[in-house]
Model the fold of this input.
Amino acid sequence: MGLSSEASAALTFVILYIILLAVLLLGSLTGGLKLCSPYGGILFHVAVRLASQAAGLVFGVVGDISLLVAYFVLGGESASLSF
Done:
């Protein structure tokens, strides 16, 4: 059973956001990045986008409409964050 095109695109972005989140967390844990700086905002934005993309991935696999609503809400919330 293969993934649909929506699930494949969401999986790509989930992987990229996981890598970015890991780099930001590693930088903050080693002391190179301070959470009170703009990097803390970027870390929060990436965490919300990761949750949004994960909801999109699950929607692509399962097809439940409530997951699509969660994807749109989290995507809108991450877009409304401004620095």
Notes: The longest helix spans residues 5-29. DSSP finds three helices and no strands in the chain. The helical segments are 5-29, 38-62, 65-80. The chain has a mean pLDDT of 83.
